[in-house]
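Work package 3, deliverable 3.1, input record:
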Amino acid sequence: MTRQEVLDLYFMDARSKLIDLAAFLDRIERATGEADFRFEAFKRALDLLSAENASKARGVLMSLSDPTIEPIAKAPGKGACGAWPGASVH
Amino acid sequence: MRYIEPHGHMVSRTTDDYEKMVLAGCAAVCEPAFWAGFDRSGVEGFYDYFCQLTDYEPKRAARFGLPHYCWLCINPKESEDVLLAAGVLEIIPQFMDRPNVLGIGEIGLNKNTRNEIQILERHIDLAARHDQLILVHTPHLEDKFKGTRLILDALQADKRINPGRVIIDHCEEHTIEMVLDAGFWAGITLYPESKTTPARAVDMYELYGQQNIWLNSACDWGKSDPLAVPKTALEMRRRGHSTETIDKLIFQNPARFMSQNPRFQLK
């Protein structure tokens, strides 16, 4: 597809998601108390969006991922939270 | 339009969903064993679940003329308990000869623990000894990249495993390339929040080749859409993909993979 065609198909959807994202960040700013590691991870991922390459989705996913290779000793639970806590201490 | 739902947890869906899927063109549904949303209390719970997958659920699907197939295992969310997992592994062979069983799955990892890897390796061994197809679940969110690497290591360490007989599911932009490069099939799962949207799925299809990829909804008891595959077909149509290209991705590809087990038949 041409860039024009991509814009015609997806601009309104992306615009809507962009405003939702901005409103989410505003909501955090207005809220009280301390944020946890997820917010820092989120902001690091946001920085990747201005990169001039065509692998931003991959970059965002990697920035939120556990990059280590060793299995862990015991499961801390069953769920995942969407960001790797270890990134904030490395 | 015709399509195959190669990964749907139909025990968690209503009969209405079967009807909607058939009306949308579903020609077969395949159901991997998974976590029920709670931990089963013992091996007997899995025995009943495997009876449900191999006896009751095919009958429910048949009311709509829909062939139903399944995969057997203990899901990685429960394999942290190695004693329970060992007991479940012992009863799986007695279900393998049932007519709708396609292979072992969805095995894999959840939190990437040593116990999970031990049970993954035992499932791989079980599949190899019984010459079964394998369907692999990759972990969620921040655990997916690491888990996919560990899963590839475990599969490649067993020289009996032919990558062309293994589908590694729930791939995303940061994992699909390593899966395809290693010769395995890649599954892309369409979820409303996690995993991928139809637009991202079509991006990956366009970027990473059009051979060994399938799409699935993985519809279950959580937020999920049993019509996600046909909705992605519409997304492809919006981008100008041909009817043949769409048919290849949502019908021919899953049929080609699962037909490696001769039990898989389309009416």
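The longest helix of chain B spans residues 43-62.
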